[in-house]
Amino acid sequence: MKAVVIGAGMGGLSAGIALRRAGLEVEVYEQVVENRPVGAAISVWSNGVKCLNHLGLGHRVAELGGQMDHMAYRDGFTGEDMCRFSLAPVTEQTGQRPYPVARAELQAMLMEELGAEHLRMGRRMVGIDDDGLRVTATFEDGSTATGDLLVGADGARSRTREYVLGRPVERRYAGYVNFNGLVEVDEAVGPPDQWTTYVGDGKRVSVMPVAGGRFYFFFDVPLPAGLPYERSRAREVLSEHFAGWAPPVHRLIRALDPQRTNRVEIHDLDPLPTWTRGRVALLGDAGHSTTPDIGQGGCSAMEDAVVLAMALQTNTISVEDSLRRYQERRAGRAGELVLRARRRSDVTHAVDPDVTAAWYDELRREDGSNVIRGIVANIVGNPLG
């Protein structure tokens, strides 16, 4: 059996590896010509690491991951700790340590594991044809790829999704812009083993450790969509948005490289009515595009990959039946995580300022138990326990 996978992001590459391990012939097609992931890093929570463990990659993700032992929230204006606690209970309760990982390095590792002979770069899909026996993808250059099934892991602007639903779907703007990148660890900004987050006025500044003595950083700013932006002005723009904030925040702004700082307007999708059509199935952001507020986007895509391979390996009525069983196992959980992230986003970014102010007050009384409970709740229910 042959699978054609569209998209070489976290989900598509994980799917390609999982399907190969399940005995399928696999070809992965990606529209860009080189590895250029969107976003500087990814939070691989315990469920995502378990998926990578399942694919035989546990030791490699551990080498790429930062040692994130603690978590702290700080007042954005004073810089004082609102709360600080150990993340050890996450590992103890889920059976696996989480890792923040540089996205490009994780993607390169997955590409290497898949194998260059299974990867086709520079192929932009423009059409799908399913004759009931085989499915064919047509690419912009006129070439085609035919298989027994097609997996649409082609991201938040998925063309496969339009085919599956028979119509385009408008993404929902979450109301904020995320600036992110990598810098060297600076203990004046945060400890090297801690996820440190400064909050205030619905804005957020975070640093998380990744391998190589680096922090993954991000700034969240509630803003209208579509505002003009020049990458070279990243420091000036962030200095304006965070005027009056604590010195460590401005130290971080001075340290970032504007040309390597990403700016992303954050969107998500309402849960979809279906993920499959005949021999075609959605995976990752194509099926459940989410805001990054609970760090489960990439992890959910990895869960998709594992369950898809299981469904094709263990159910033999038909490809169409296997894909429907995959959808039945995944759509409810993935959709719920999208909605949880949306609710978390609204609180974090002051959609209702009174609710956000109340959350800040709660953080000042937090001993870690409530935050840990929320993190673990996102992890449990994953397909690998």
From TrEMBL:
Pathway(s) where this gene product acts: Purine metabolism; urate degradation
Record family assignment: Belongs to the FAD-dependent urate hydroxylase family.
Organism expressing this protein natively: Cellulomonas marina
Pfam family, one: FAD_binding_3
Protein name: FAD-dependent urate hydroxylase
InterPro entries with a match to the protein in the record: FAD-bd, FAD-dep_Monooxygenase_BioMet, FAD/NAD-bd_sf, HpxO
Keyword ATP-binding on entry: no
Signal peptide coordinates: none
Keywords of this entry: FAD, Flavoprotein, Monooxygenase, NAD, Oxidoreductase, Purine metabolism
Domain of life: Bacteria
Entry EC number(s): 1.14.13.113
